[in-house]
Amino acid sequence: MRKSIDISRIEFSDFNWDKGNWRKNWLKHKVTTDESEEIFYNEPILFFRDEQHSQKEDRFIAYGITDKERLLTVVFTIRKTNIRIISARDQSKKERRIYETKKNTQI
To answer: CB of 70 within 8 A of CB of 35?
Structure first.
């Protein structure tokens, strides 16, 4: 089981997109760049370190919610003050359970 981490103190100024990543997210998962970015402004949001894919640079996983209440899992890295989104997709059943549990404990 992943242990959530607190990276809420990280301030970011913008998002950085690789053309291939935003295109892949849309074609494969029907997630727009706006939806991917929205979860970083909405609460609750859960962060996990992506140990499996952090060999070259630290990668993180975020469970969050869009403005239209779509539950997403977003994989990203931080470069200087920019969040670089690698992938975004709908949360799995297991991820939704984890997210909803956290959401209900914050009420």
So the answer is: yes
User: In which domain, by residue range, is 72 found?
Assistant: 29-105
Which pLDDT tens digit goes with each residue over 44-94?
999 998 877 667 888 999 999 999 999 999 999 998 889 999 999 999 999
In a domain, residue 43? The reply is yes
What b/e sequence results for 14-44 when a residue is b if at least 16 CB atoms lie within 10 Å of its CB, and e otherwise?
Answer: ebbbeeebbeebeeebebebebbbbbeeeee
pTM of the model: 0.85
Containing 27, the helix (H) or strand (E) segment is helix 19-29
Domain count, the chain: 1
One-letter identity of residue 91 = Q
Q: What confidence score (pLDDT) does residue 22 get?
A: 84
